[in-house]
Amino acid sequence: MDQENTPTRKTLWIFAVVGVLIYALVPVIWIASLSLKTPESIGDGSFLPTHWTLHNYTTAFKTGFFTASLRNSIGIALITTVIALAFASMAAYAITRLDFPGKTAILAGALAVTMFPAISIVGGLYNVWRNIGLFDTWAGLILPYLSFSLPLSIYILSAFFREIPWDLEKAAQMDGATPLQAFWRVILPLAVPGVFTAGILTFIAAWNDFLFANVLTATNSARTAPVALSYFTGASQFQQPAGAIAAGAVIVTVPILIMVLIFQRRIVSGLTAGAVKG
Amino acid sequence: MANVATTTTAPRQIQAAPPAAHGLTGRAKAERKLGLLLCAPAVIVMLFVAGFPILYAFWLSLHRADLRFPQLDAWVGLDNYKSVLTSSTWWQDVGNTLIITVVSVSIELVLGMLIAQAMYRAIYARTAIRVAVLVPYGAVTVVAAFAWRLAFDPATGFVTHWLGLTTPPLTTRSGSFILIIMAEVWKTTPFIALLLLGGLALVPEDLYKAAKVDGATSLQRFFRITLPLIKPALMVAVLFRTLDAFRIYDVVYIMTNGANNTESVSLLGYRVLINRLNLGLGSAISVLIFFCVILIALTFTRFLGASPQRR
């Protein structure tokens, strides 16, 4: 635009940028700073620690249940992501490329699933899982996570698949490849960016869940990190649970921060593409 | 979006339906088979883990089903619904949930629009803004709730000291609501901002230039050009956030666990289902929440023109 770089405009933009950064980062910096405070200085009312310590981190890791919960969280989120991507890319490919009945019903059904309140299905799952032995297991959490991340993945992947130059597929089929070969050998490599985007969003969703994990687990064998964090409060074995909670919160946030830093373009394009192209 | 039939374009669904099977060539038949085969795993998972539990919840809600007294299980018809709908707790919690939903989605909409504009037009630090905005999006909700709770708790935080508050916010009802809403807004505004960013990218820059030549102020440009053109993205963002906010559970659980009369309907459902192990009554609550969500979705799609299938 014409009056782009007037000094007032520049100052306004600096304020806007600083405002957004403060909004987004202060709570995270705060919890990190709290995690570095010594038990004696935790109530001193300062934003940054006056006395620094890593004591809270050793406390968090020393408690077996938090370490176990981290292992569960990583395993469950990774397995969910891999399976969701496999299932969703198969379905999205079929929906964008093949002619078969029930396509509209599948998309409408998937959309409906995204709107299901988790609380409405968790009671039923709780009862069924206890009876068929899925209660307090990894699979017992992976299954609901899958059903909630599949719709979004299918929508994102369909949006990406539509942009792929599909003539290449025809060319491959002309050269004698079956539809399945054309998919695996030619199209899948082109679809990798979309698959990555859907994968990151699935991982974040599974990592973030609290309700299913809180209801469908009971012990270290499947309890995830967010639930373990909520158990820090009641545990009286810590003299200052706030410090340990903060340390745990930082540990849970770090993997997400790393992903956001590396994949910011993919995440932004995934969320915006979902709204615009889909 | 062209290939996805929306609910309002029923005729296209009929056109899209393939011709009767006997008229198909071998190749087309193989294609149909492959299509269904490729969709099967996803569909089966969604049916088994989302579709079936909803029906099961409905079935349970018509029974007396208390895990502590399994021998008393019996068909009770709509009695559970009667108990829920005549209890003041349910209506109180519906009110609480609506307060949280309406206030937080309104704030998020305004804030999200500002952030989207900043992300779209920033002349400085564009990447830094985008990365920073993704931090709350990616942060675990439980962590967000703890960060805000611990910051406002006089024993651990700095806010009460800085603001000179004499009563800790989490000891009062209004303070608790404000904190719940702040944590929720912080965590979910980026989602709205990113969806709106997608909408902004679709507005042709020429329109702004033309309006400027005609002497339109920036406010006029926003209300006459930007807003109408991003309305579809906006409505989808609001619909998804409203549905999401209505299901609020994590933040309330961590922040107050329902104390100070801040319980949400999802938390009520959790308490009856899991703490009291009353599956019948809890399922009635679950089913009612499900219908509330359908009602919200229908209101948005029918009357406000949100078309979620664009996503």
How would you describe this structure to a colleague?
The complex is a heterodimer of chains A (278) and B (311). With 278 residues, chain A is mainly α. Chain A has one domain (62-276): MetI-like (MetI-like fold, Orthogonal Bundle). Helices cover 76% and strands 0% of the residues of chain A. The longest helix of chain A is centred in the last third of the chain and has 36 residues, at 241-276. In chain A, 51% of the residues are buried. The mean pLDDT of chain A is 87. By secondary structure, chain B is mostly helical. Chain B folds into two domains: 23-78, no CATH class; 81-310, MetI-like (MetI-like fold, Orthogonal Bundle), CATH 1.10.3720. Helices cover 71% and strands 1% of the residues of chain B. Chain B has 13 helices and two strands, in the order H-H-E-E-H-H-H-H-H-H-H-H-H-H-H. A two-stranded antiparallel ribbon of chain B has the order 1-2. In chain B, helix 4 runs antiparallel to helix 5 (126-138), helix 5 crosses helix 8 (173-200) and helix 6 crosses helix 8. Chain B is globular. Chains A and B meet through helix 1, helix 3, helix 4, helix 5 and helix 6 of A and helix 2, helix 4, helix 5, helix 6 and helix 7 of B.
Index terms:
heterodimer; A: 278 residues; mainly alpha; MetI-like fold; 0% strand; B: 311 residues; 2 domains; 13 helices
